[in-house]
Description:
By secondary structure, this protein is mainly alpha-helical. It is about 60% helix and about 5% strand. The protein has a three-stranded antiparallel sheet. Strand 2 and strand 3 form a beta hairpin.
Amino acid sequence: MRNTxxxxxxxxxxxxxLAFAIRRRVGTVPPALxxxxxxxxxxxxxxxxxxxxxxxxxxxxAQRLDMSTAHASLVVGELARSGLVQRDHDDKDRRRVVVALxxxxxxxxxxxxxRHATALDRFLLGLNDAEAARFIDHLTDLxxxxxxxxxxxxxxxxxxxx
Length: 162
């Protein structure tokens, strides 16, 4: 077994810094995306998920965002009351409700995406295509490993070692 203590010692302090940098960027939310005068992370995360991955059911959003279905339903309700999402019945199965971005939310999310993309572009320009793909794959695995500690998800399923 490899000794990872040195790497963990370098990585561990970076995680809170990364979380802080992301929260600070999210803090600059356009007023059009604020829910009840606030810009809670859960609202922004759901709006970004809808913008990137497209419309979804409440249970699909809950799975995407690692939250309970009840919590996702609460957030969808708050976003719908603010006019940022719309809920429509699925044409094929009228019992299913699909959540999508409203026309109000789209331009403000595009503005926010463009502002954040600049920093990501700056970072990715320093990597070749293989390095960028490997970085994203490793970051995806790290998020899955961190989540598995909380959720009880099988570590093997996400490339985590025991």
